[in-house]
């Protein structure tokens, strides 16, 4: 047996017991006549002690040959520590070692295996197996496991069945690019890796498996942006014989139970906000509602302002936020935020500020156009009080909202309003069914072509399809979309109408979606579902937003695994077998 | 709300309640003035009743328009049935329907959705989504889910962490062929799909995650034999700071808990059998020990027989089995089994039979060479009693054992000794470390190159490597290998020795395994693991051996999904983007 206990469990209760421990040498403190070693494993750290008085000479010699990250096994007696460490569970004891067995030596690791390491990101990714020894990484993987277990048990208890859908499927002309897999046995033919099990979960509903879920790997061959992975994990779910309300109920319950598990807090019923309201109030369909700073429009609904300030009066929308207790900001601080919104990624041309000073007077960057009375009226609209600072932006509605939303989030971050241990979930509902695409001059499905319009909006499909809302919903947590889904169309006539709106001919609809349409001929039940981005969900539940930290072996921004050095060239024989030839363009 | 109850839960307790149900029309019995419908969903069947006296004329007209597999919603009152059906949970009640809502019509399905269907395998695979509506298919998927949940909870309770390892990895020169995935962003380079997470789980051990598991899809581009799938699911496990005994203990416990869950029976400690013993007693390294018929050798250990019967006397091994109570078989019955072993797949040239007749006399197919006294002596060796039948085969040791093993299994099947509801697990241990490959004239690792020899056999690596046994183990259940694994080598010197034995130069070892070897430099702990074939495990636990039945959307023997018609050709633009050209050989 390699150990009687782990390195995280011994305490004064075990005093005088003879124990065997195994693990890695974390640190060695060598005082010559005495040597202390911190022995580490997944469960914690136990202090080992060797001293000239109580240990054999042979043992003293052996211990002096050890180095960092050596793997050892020791047997010894649990004794009380002279100077206790209250920060760790084993801090009251140490092991007086009687036997030392070197299990494996180690070369000096390329970075320190400590909570705060000296290794940069690239180096740690290359030696990810060493990085995983560090608590912050290890703990995140364990956290992920616990969340997955909790989700599975919650949904299983509610009668959901986890069904494994295939990974080798057929290429479909959906949004992003598929990864493809050449088939040796079917030369010239390819499988595709699924971007989601969408088709299969709808088929399972046709098959009567009325509560389905799966925690499943999905794949997307996209040009990677920061923190996007070519392979990612979804909690994929679908239900039959349900309405939107049933779906929201179940998955609100699931998320609340995760939050309860982590924080011990009951978050209660999730607020619901329409897409329209979210855009008006936060300029964003995934608002972080842990803090206020709601948008206040200054221009009248659907009209332009008449203030005498041309920048405002020419704009489609003038809108601002009130930043509480920041009127004392210096010009430099304010300019910092003006520069922020003028960054090319955000693209504003400028921003107006108004200070409601502690003494009750008002001043602004547009004093030339607004006298104090006018500023006072604006402050009233904003609900501002002395000491507050207002920012106002103007421009085209969508653009200005997006810009102001970016500012609001930046302020939230800078002012410490986005607290990692606070959870503010909400549902955003009533998304538009369609999006107008300027480039192609036609409508696209905002969610996907099987998303059902709201029954009361079906008549709009004939007249103003752009105004029709969908039975589609997103779950938002702390300013991140963590899940989204929709009620599906299961009626043939409505589905044809949708295809028409999307500008698909009968033939195109048949070739792209014929397979699922065919299945729908045999008694498709009403159904609805959603999917959570599991990597992101886990990160956010853990008070973090970097999903890469929650993936054991992530890929970098070029889709490379720098640890195993994949992808890589393969042998010509392998290509021949697959009837393939590489033709790299110059 | 689409339903207040499912179709499997109403009983006399709900008498007179108004309920709403949804589901598929399973059957319609139309007596003109009365119509009964069996309404089906995932949970069961509820009988609906419509009659001229109690139902509106409109309702009677609507119900007559329904057909098989139409999706309907009904509201009505729970009433007591006149003629009860004790076979189903809802058999005492029916629903007097007041409202009928047609949710979706259905074309006539291509086969009947009944437990016994009229659809052939190919047709059912093509319309798998309809096949899943049938209880035998649906129940198997639900069974699979329950087993996965049980495994996850069992291992989680034991401190195992499920870690998702990547699907897009690097091609390795292991046994079977990898599926590869061209990388668009890295032209001319390919990912590979994992045949198993072997490397990653060993890296997790190096990373200190000392109890790992994962229920994970793996991929193998093999020429498919019957019931082999290109994608399959493994329960993949690894532990650090353990010896073989610790691994056996944990996974024996896991399997026993699954068996307990299914059968309510405690199977107790699993018997252990060395590979050598299994081969001697059953001619097979995965013996079905639900029944006896152990092999009895007639030729003396390591020597030839001297019986006067040249077929026996020339053979390396003469070995037989005793089939109890079958002495009354006709010549035709016996000839059937002789023909069985002479089939080319089995390849025996013949077989001797000996009948120990009820009256105590003995007769055989070799009376010319063996008088009754000689036969009696054989019968004694076999422990046969009057009424028993003996079969004896002879030839080269390995061949004859394999042939006799096939006969034993066939007899087990025919005599009903392989009972689906009986579980006989065992461990087969002490596998040979190496296999001699005639073709290449060198040793191959029987398990894999990181498998540790038994410490007491390490000296044999210098002298008789073929005789060295490995710390490798298989879990066998009812004659199927359901899992296997090994203690891994973690010592550099021993690993080099292994590479030498396998005929790998330093350069080859470096290029094939350098990556893992490199990780092992930084303090690899002693570790061991195993993997279960989950598809097979589930089938066998459910008393079945056809794994395809337990996969929601399986592929056929050519690796095709006939339902979605994959693999398939992809567009030239897609190939261009991947810098690939298809070159089909003539």
UniProtKB/TrEMBL annotation, chains A, B:
Its EC number is 6.1.1.12. One of its GO terms (molecular function) is aspartate-tRNA ligase activity. The keyword Nuclease does not apply. ATP binds at residues 220-222, 229, 481, 533-536. Residues 198-201 are annotated as: Aspartate. Residues 144-554 form the Aminoacyl-transfer RNA synthetases class-II family profile domain. It catalyses: tRNA(Asp) + L-aspartate + ATP = L-aspartyl-tRNA(Asp) + AMP + diphosphate. InterPro entries: Aa-tRNA-synt_II, aa-tRNA-synth_II, aa-tRNA-synth_II/BPL/LPL, Asp-tRNA-ligase_1, Asp-tRNA-ligase_1_N, Asp/Asn-tRNA-synth_IIb, AspRS_core, GAD-like_sf. Coiled coil: none annotated. It is found in: Cytoplasm. It is an enzyme of class 6 (ligase). Pfam families: GAD (PF02938), tRNA-synt_2 (PF00152), tRNA_anti-codon (PF01336). The keyword Protein biosynthesis applies. L-aspartate binds at residues 174, 220, 447, 488. Keywords: Aminoacyl-tRNA synthetase, ATP-binding, Cytoplasm, Ligase, Nucleotide-binding, Protein biosynthesis. Catalyzes the attachment of L-aspartate to tRNA(Asp) in a two-step reaction: L-aspartate is first activated by ATP to form Asp-AMP and then transferred to the acceptor end of tRNA(Asp). Homodimer. HAMAP family: Asp_tRNA_synth_type1. This is Aspartate--tRNA ligase. It comes from Chryseobacterium suipulveris. The lineage of its organism: Bacteria, Pseudomonadati, Bacteroidota, Flavobacteriia, Flavobacteriales.
